[in-house]
Write a structure and sequence with these properties.
- It is a single chain.
- The chain has helices at 15-24, 39-44, 46-63, 65-68, 85-109, 167-170, 187-199, 218-230, 322-336, 365-370, 386-391, 419-431, 436-440, 451-460; strands spanning 2-9, 29-33, 113-116, 118-123, 126-131, 134-145, 149-151, 164-165, 179-183, 202-206, 235-236, 240-246, 251-257, 260-266, 268-271, 275-277, 291-292, 295-296, 309-311, 350-352, 358-362, 375-381, 397-403, 408-415.
- α3 packs antiparallel against α5 (85-109).
- The strands form 6 sheets. Strands 1, 2, 3, 4, 5, 6 and 19 form a 7-stranded mixed sheet that branches. A 5-stranded parallel sheet has the order 8-15-9-10-11. It has a 5-stranded antiparallel sheet with strand order 20-21-24-23-22.
- It contains 14 helices and 24 strands.
- β17 and β18 form a beta hairpin.
- It is an alpha/beta fold.
Length: 469
């Protein structure tokens, strides 16, 4: 029987980070991964999706220089712009390969032990790993559960059917479907739906709720809805996909809408209605840990109700985001090493890679109001930012929300070009309880998009220079 101090089950952005940090801290660690180093995020999630989003955006700009604004800059193209899906997939896989290979190397160089296999928990301090060469029993003091999540499958839409895609299948398409119905208007549906639309598929989005991106600022949703309309992507709100049937040359999707049932022709159906945490199938029930619905209940140190058992990432609660998992991973590693730390993060920033991008940190305007705050709001359109004008990407805005009692930054919402890069300043401001003047009196370089964060903060104080207060 093999003996180690800690076994980490799963090598996604939670598991591999935890294993590396444990090894750095001198803890004998074994990380067990079922399929690929990097988990869902690096292999079939965050990284490949952003690669395809980047490629699709470049392709769309070339195909439609007028729509993208390139023709206004005097840039035009012939009619022979094409996309080679096989080359695109090979390029994407090359990026994934570099990153996953890098993770394996980092684990090895830091001294973590690695096994590819299927882990089963036998009880506290004991697991069995089934590998290609057989099974091995492992004794340990600690188990870190980092098993991630799986796309939800809805009745009547089985992922086993060739026409039905989850996010994993959508990211691996070798042939572009002529028509795609996307079920679910959350961030995954909008990101992948936008990719398919930019590559040339006729996309329709079906969403059960009364708005796209449920939970996001209505101002954000209006910008995205306007751009989807410009891109000729129909959106059906308050609508539910009931089922589908095979016709002669395509599928017919039946949708229940406020105006009655409608049929949509589709060559592919992409289901993006959320994800379930992976908390079954590996012996978790033998531990009798306390659960919070489908999630494993943890405290601020990542501890479960059973001593020596920890959980991080998607299995440990929302939001299901890679960077949240990585942060929890480092906390757990420090705790196992005997350090007095806990997770005190005030915000987990969120990014949606749509057109334009959306990013939030802290409370959005409607959330701050719902929480009972008296607030001040500053909002600057990208069209008022010089750098945005020079790039031709003027859709969207930057919004800063302050606590009116002390001008403390409660949150920032950015909808526009490079929102994913701009949000980190906002996350730092929320984390450090920054006041409006901490941002407003910080000299921001010109001409940059980052100036908009400064200007929006000053706008909340009634001191903006480049827009009317």
């Amino acid at each position: 029987m093999k003996t180690v101090n800690t076994v980490v089950i799963g090598a996604g952005p939670g598991g591999y980070v935890c294993a590396i940090r444990l090894a750095q801290l001198g803890i004998e660690t074994l990380v067990v991964e079922k399929t690929n180093w990097g988990g869902v995020c690096l292999n079939v999630g965050c990284i490949p999706s952003k690669a395809l989003i980047s490629a699709a955006t470049k392709f769309s700009d070339l195909v439609s220089p007028k729509k993208s604004g390139l023709s206004d800059m005097g840039i035009s193209f012939g009619s022979d712009v094409e996309i080679d899906m096989l080359k695109l997939q090979a390029w994407k896989e090359g990026i994934v390969g570099k990153l996953t290979g890098g993770i394996a190397q980092l684990l090895e160089k830091n001294g973590a032990q690695m096994m590819i296999g299927e882990a089963t928990i036998n009880g506290v301090g004991s697991i069995t790993v089934k590998t290609a060469d057989g099974s091995e029993n492992i004794k340990c003091e600690n188990i870190v559960i980092a098993t991630g999540s799986t796309p939800i499958e809805i009745p009547g839409f089985s992922y086993k059917d060739p026409r039905i895609m989850d996010s994993t299948k959508a990211l691996a398409i070798k042939e572009l479907p002529k028509r795609t119905v996307v079920i679910g208007g959350g961030y995954i549906g909008l990101e992948l739906g936008t990719v398919l639309s930019k590559l040339g598929s006729e996309v329709t989005i079906v969403e059960m709720g009364d708005q796209l991106l449920p939970g996001f600022d209505p101002d954000v949703v209006r910008v995205l809805a306007r751009n989807l309309k410009k891109s000729k992507v129909p959106v059906m709100l308050k609508s539910r996909a009931l089922g589908w049937e095979e016709n002669e040359d395509c599928a017919s999707v039946t949708v229940d809408t406020p105006k009655g049932e409608k049929s949509l022709d589709a060559d592919a159906i992409l289901v993006t209605v959320g994800r379930f945490p992976n908390t079954t199938g590996f012996g978790l029930e033998k531990l009798n840990v306390n659960m919070d619905g489908r999630f494993i209940k943890i405290d601020k140190q990542g501890k479960t109700s059973v001593a020596g058992i920890y959980a991080i990432g998607d299995v440990a609660g929302n939001p299901m985001l890679a960077h949240k998992a990585s942060h929890e991973a480092e906390v757990v590693a420090e705790v196992i090493a005997g350090h007095n730390v806990q997770n005190e993060a005030k915000t987990v920033p969120a990014v949606v890679f749509t057109n334009p991008e959306v990013a939030t940190a802290g409370l959005q305007e409607h959330e701050a109001k719902a929480a009972g705050y008296d607030i001040k709001v500053g909002k600057v359109p990208f069209a008022a930012i010089g750098r945005a004008l020079t790039t031709g990407h003027t859709d969207g805005f930057i919004k800063v929300v302050l606590d009116a009692s002390d001008d403390r930054v409660l949150g920032v919402t950015i909808c526009g070009s490079h929102a994913s890069d701009l949000i980190s300043e906002a996350a730092l401001a929320v984390e450090m309880d920054a006041s409006a003047l901490d941002i407003g009196l910080t000299i921001h370089p010109h001409p940059t998009l980052g100036e908009g964060v400064m200007e929006a903060t000053k706008a909340a104080l009634g001191e903006a220079i480049h827009i009317l207060n």
